[in-house]
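Working notes for the structural subgroup meeting. M.R. asked for a predicted model of this chain before we commit to crystallization trials. I am recording the input and output together here so anyone reviewing the notebook later can reproduce the run.

Input as submitted:
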Amino acid sequence: MKLQELLKAINPLAIIGDADADITGVNIDSRKIDNGHLFVAMKGTQVDGHRFIPKAIAMGAKAILCEDVPEDRTEGVTYVQVTSTEDVVGKVATVFYGNPSKKLKLVGVTGTNGKTTVATLLYNMFRKMGHKCGLLSTVCNYIEDEAIPADHTTPDAVELNKLLARMVDAGCEYAFMECSSHAIAQKRIGGLSFTGGLFTNLSRDHLDYHKTFENYRNAKKKFFDDLPKSSFAITNADDKNGMVMVQNCKATVKTYSTRQMADFRARIIEMHFAGMYLNVDGHEVGVQFIGKFNVSNLLAVYGAARMLGKQPEDILIALSTLHSVSGRLEPIQSPEGVTAIVDYAHTPDALENVLNAIQEVDGKGHIITVCGAGGNRDKGKRPLMAQEAVKQSDRVIITSDNPRFEEPQDIIDDMLAGLNKQQMKKVISIADRREAIKTACMLAGKGDVVLVAGKGHENYQEIKGVKHHFDDKEVIREIFGIDSKTADASSRND
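Returned structure, recorded in token form:
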């Protein structure tokens, strides 16, 4: 592709060199540069990509997209200057990969909790309905059956368009995508055309990056502000920020609720650990999920499917066959009658939701909660996590999560600082996560529930920059004396 064709969607300040240069690839990572590539020098949060321009040229870059043109320029290399590379990289990548988001129906899901569940369920549902689909999620990216591991909730703009182009080539009709606040703020989704957007809920998260709750909320809101008139926006009317999200939205706005009048409504008829019976828009349906927050997630899925043209009956039949996403309220039963629940809950709000769900179902046995908090992230939520755990649990064990570059005990101390003397009577701290889970399982008797929160689908602990294998589900099965291979095989066959 000619460079000038690649630049047609942006307004460069200057082009120094040959605008007719043939470009064979686009990259923001100098390590991935090959002959004929365009290197985009990004000013990131930690590293300035301008430092790597010489390396990119040495690797074969034919053109450089940058904010600051180097004084020492290389013969035969074209330099394209723009005000902000972050603003334009998505548009350039979209052009290079043939505008893939316009060739399929792309639906974005944003919010604090529930993004993975909603996006994954939509992907699974539409595949069950006979459509070829792609998924971009925290857990894994999928092009039909092909799994592509995910490093971030939302890949960078170049990688994203590359994945979407692969989906188009594979014949996908739909793509369902988590849109994180980081991705929106860093314009990783710039240049994409969305058929629809969904909002789940909003609570305190990622304040280490966004600094204030308002900045965090506005990042999510920008996603809806940018939706075109031709698309749809579905928002959670039960969340106090639900209508804020869509107040400047040009798209067709629909609402969902479990508590008030809305376009899509549902209520719980019955609930057990195996699932719930719901009334959705006047139809009864059995689903393999528990918890009021999951009713909201299922409603978001139902609403999106309706807006994508599916009939209510077909949607509900598909919903009844779907399973929970890995590590989201996932139950494991011991031979002695203890129920362990593994969940990704890593915010105070998510922990409250999970414990509410367990209380709603159980109500009789004791609840023993094992939880921690991530290192090098928002410290303000640590005491709040401990408070939420204590509020609805009979016993709490505070432990290590992903300490990253912090000392586990320092994180635990930050959590314990949020508790008074009375609350501390319920709490013990064990820094070793395996020992903490083992202790919780030993304290539990028949009919009790052990909630292991924070890591969910993750199968590692990140310590001092190194990821060590650690899987909460494996550890629990080992303690319960359940064969992991058998359990994994049966879950895959479900």
